[in-house]
Amino acid sequence: MDGHGDEGLARAPRVLAALSDVFGIEDYRGPQAQAISAVLAGRDVLLTMPTGAGKSLAYQLPAVVEEGMTLVVSPLIALMKDQVDALVSRGIRAAYVNSSISAGERARRLAAAVAGELDLLYVTPERFRQPDFMEALPNLPVRRLAVDEAHCISQWGHDFRPDFSRLGEYRRRLGGVPAIALTVTATPAVAADISQQLELQDPLILRTGIERENLFLAVTEVGSEEEKVDLLVERIQSIDGPGIVYGALIKDLERIHGELRRRGVETLVYHGKLSPEERRGMQERFMASSRLVVLATNAFGMGIDKADIRFVIHTQVPRTLEAWTQEIGRAGRDGAPSWCELLYFPEDIAIQDTFVRWANPTLEYVVMVYETLAGWGERVQVKDEDDLRAELLVKERRDNRVGIALRWFEVLGVTAGSFEGHDLEVRRALDPDDLPAFLATGQKLQDDLRALLGMVEFAKNADRPRRELLAAHFGLKDTVGRGCDNTEDAAAWRAACLPARPAEAAPPGGSAPLPADPEAAFARGDWVEIDGRHLGQVVKVEGEGRRTRLVVESAGDFRRRTVDPRRKRVRKI
Question: Are strands 293-296 and 179-183 parallel, antiparallel or unpaired?
Fold first, then answer.
């Protein structure tokens, strides 16, 4: 922990009463008390804590016990509703304002905030560019600013977002109210950049590492995709309980899903090509399950508060140690032993190297995007992003350079509207000097490549305890030294600490699973998976026995289809 602070204000009787009565918590964990005392004293704070360790309490509890409103800036629209619903269920006056609700509802919530009827208001940083919000801003009774996922502010963070870079300016518009910045991980460079960009004044800096002794950290190098799948099957079959298997490429997740199924191991698959309804359905089933395993891109897990995840396995090398640390932090929040492993295949490095380059347009590239838009004139409103990609000879949709350029134009007021709304327009000429210097120097690209190299060096290091390596990377004092494959026998630890998955839950592999029994009983309301790909709910069962037909409503597009269980592989979920 970098900083030290007084715990006195957090221990005041009225604060402890709210901690217990409102949040159901009897005492603080880690640096929570120090952070809360500093927030109550009106001091700026930078707090890093592991995933699931309770960072949010540092601003939520002060918001409950003090007058005024806390404005929470978060990049994750998908999680705001869940966060606010959880607060409202505790009797806390909270709301969110984002693009997922109607203009009328946004106006009502902003009016409630102006009237002093809210303790917490959640917004995305992009909201500060919207006229209705900026009009209401001077009248909002904001007492403090909380910035979640604060690494997005820093050009050295692993998920830089252009709109976050202007939060210092927005804070000034709020009158320079005290601020608390929160993130899971931050190197010294990222922490310093957050403080500078957010204009924190003499902040209390509290930075913790992975101190959860129940997590076992391991890296296993494999020589082929086949060996990777073999190991994955072995791990899933040997560890009971829910698990997350992360991969970087959707096509590889789907391939692994098919191979696991062929060997009799059933999994869910979660990625960005699924509809919002399918993704929510996957998440809900995973949350309710005691054994499901989900194959997922890194989009899965943000906001997942499932305590009993027994393993997190990465089948492809993550881009940074920060990302890996955040993702393995979703395991074992109940304190029970949990397994965290990277299956390191050196050829996978090329995947992340490409992603890094696709996330870092050069200054010349950004200017070229602008000149293309400007050259279209009024025709821009009948174009879309695919037209822009085609014009720029971008053939790979995962190449995000076009999208990043468009976000900078929005942030700088060069454009207004969007392709999606068919109202995109160029408002003013682009001055290249308005763009960040790292676009011209290529500094961020080099920093991102060095971060990938740091992940690779961590994976290949077999000499030092992995927590020591993490502590050194994040500039922290060493914490727990053991609990990794560099200090003890990994197989022996698994056998001693993790219960084996029952055979019936994961039958031994080697052959394709049998199709569903056509005479199996289905009932209205059952969730089913069809041919291992499509998710839906049975809304009607027609006939019986061999003549059974199911009318299934797709979770993706809500269309109803009649399915013959004898001709399709239909599995209850």
Answer: unpaired
